[in-house]
Each structure stands twice: as structure tokens, then as C-alpha cells.
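Lecture 7 notes: from sequence to structure.
We start with the chain below.
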Amino acid sequence: MSHKILLVEDDSLLSGIYKMKLEKAGFEVVVADDGEKGVSAAKEIKPDLVLLDLVLPKLDGIEVCRRIRENDAKVKICFLTNISPEEKGEDAKKAGADGYIVKTTCTPTELVKKVKEKFFSVNP
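Predicted C-alpha cells for the same chain:
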């Protein structure tokens, strides 16, 4: 059984790259391109992990995280953003996030490795 990942990312180029890399690694990936779609998709597909941008149309990542967490206390949520953890890391934790990855310091290949190790206890 493959793990389901919900990627909430409004940059279609980035989401396409991340989706391709994650699917190649054996994950099932659903993409939502705004905060409201992210909340709806989380309810519908019941993902194992949500990779969530902070800056999104309609609802920001912090609010998306709160709403997803209200509906599912067990889902893993990791912010995947260009905003430094010094700026928003504390807000992310308070909203219920399990992790925080800065896009500019993590290649798509490294993202797959981190997802496997941190969220699914798989050694690459």
C-alpha cells in the first residue's frame, strides 16, 4: 500500500516537480492549488501526510493547518515553504504542524528523502 500525500502548493511548476519526484518514489500524490481546496482535499482523501505551503490563495497555510488538524488529529502535516522557520516556525507549531522544510534549502530529491525518513520511517 502506498502512502497518500496531499501537496498544497500554488506554484504549478513546483508542485509538478514535487509530485513527479514523490510518485517516482512510490507515493500517491494529490495536489491542491489553494488553501480552501487543500482543506477539502484533506477531508476527502484522508492523506497520510500533508505538505503545505504557507503563502496560498484563499486561506493561508497556518489556517489550512488548523482546519485540517481539527478534522484529523493523526495526519502528519509538514510546512514546505520559502519563509524561514524563525519567522513562522512557532506559528506553524501552534497550528499543529509536525515539521517545517524550507524549499530553498531542500532539493526535490532531498524532499523525498526527508519525507521517507521523518514521516514514514523508511531509510532511502
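Points to note: Residues 86 and 92 are 11 Å apart (CA to CA). The two ends are 17 Å apart (CA to CA).
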